[in-house]
């Protein structure tokens, strides 16, 4: 199997834990725009656009562009506040920096974001946690409400960034939910699933590879070698 040369990363639960800053900011925005914090949200693998569509439905409001713009403007302001105020202590998840540093040093390898966050929210989180220097492009939750549609968008932007098209065998999507796994499957890519979010290992079994977290290089270092062994149920150590 080809060595992966395009790595696409989810953010929440995969790269960072914001301590609930994003969830609180979404509630703040709902209260400001709709007058109520809205329904309980399950953000595991969700897109921000999909979340807002659900709020429009919950509050019986038409999906108007002006309301959407106001919602996300409030959300971004509140996200910045909650991240910077210390009210929601967050962290970079185990092993993330080590993996990103290794990828940065690998010739021919590029890294991008594939996230349900809207673009401005994604980069606010990356800057806050000092991870922005590792990424130059991405596909975001403002591009489409359906996460499975973000993969093709990410591939288009990766091709524009790198000046070439990537085959499915060259792509790894790193995420922490079954929706990340489905997103990878939709474009024929491999998914390296990490159990660092809110989904236990057993519910990530459909991924190409599952690891508890990224802190043990045995879970990913072989993917950086020029020739990587074929994955699968009897494949490399660390697969489940």
UniProtKB/TrEMBL annotation:
InterPro entries: HAD-like_hydrolase_sf, HAD-like_sf, HAD_sf, PGP-like_dom2
Matching Pfam families: Hydrolase
Gene: gph_4
The enzyme's E.C. designation: 3.1.3.18
Membrane-spanning intervals of the chain: none
Database matches in PANTHER family: PHOSPHOGLYCOLATE PHOSPHATASE
Superkingdom, taxonomy of origin: Bacteria
Pathway field: Organic acid metabolism; glycolate biosynthesis; glycolate from 2-phosphoglycolate: step 1/1
Descriptive protein name: phosphoglycolate phosphatase
Enzyme class of the recorded protein, top EC level: hydrolase
Signal peptide: none
Entry's family note: Belongs to the HAD-like hydrolase superfamily. CbbY/CbbZ/Gph/YieH family.
Catalytic reaction equation(s): 2-phosphoglycolate + H2O = glycolate + phosphate
Taxonomic lineage: Bacteria, Pseudomonadati, Verrucomicrobiota, Verrucomicrobiia, Verrucomicrobiales
């Amino acid at each position: 199997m080809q060595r992966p040369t395009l790595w696409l990363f989810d953010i929440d639960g995969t790269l960072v834990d914001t301590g609930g800053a994003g969830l609180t900011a979404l509630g703040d925005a709902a209260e400001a725009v709709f007058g109520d914090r809205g329904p309980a949200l399950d953000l595991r693998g969700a897109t921000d656009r999909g979340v807002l569509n659900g709020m429009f439905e919950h509050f019986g409001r038409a999906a108007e562009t002006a309301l959407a713009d106001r919602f996300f403007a409030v959300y971004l302001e509140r996200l910045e506040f909650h991240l910077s105020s210390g009210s929601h202590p967050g962290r970079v998840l185990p092993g993330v920096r080590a993996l990103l540093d290794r990828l940065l040093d690998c010739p021919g390898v590029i890294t991008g974001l594939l996230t349900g966050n809207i673009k401005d929210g994604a980069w606010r989180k990356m800057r806050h946690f000092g991870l922005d220097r590792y990424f130059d492009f991405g596909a975001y939750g403002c591009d489409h409400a359906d996460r499975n549609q973000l993969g093709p968008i990410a591939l288009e932007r990766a091709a524009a960034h790198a000046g070439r098209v990537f085959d499915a065998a060259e792509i790894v999507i790193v995420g922490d939910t079954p929706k990340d796994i489905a997103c990878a499957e939709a474009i024929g890519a491999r998914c390296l699933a990490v159990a660092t979010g809110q989904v236990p290992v057993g519910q990530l079994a459909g991924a190409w590879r599952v690891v508890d977290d990224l802190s043990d290089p045995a879970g990913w270092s072989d993917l950086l070698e020029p020739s990587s062994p074929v994955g699968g149920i009897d494949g490399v150590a660390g697969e489940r």
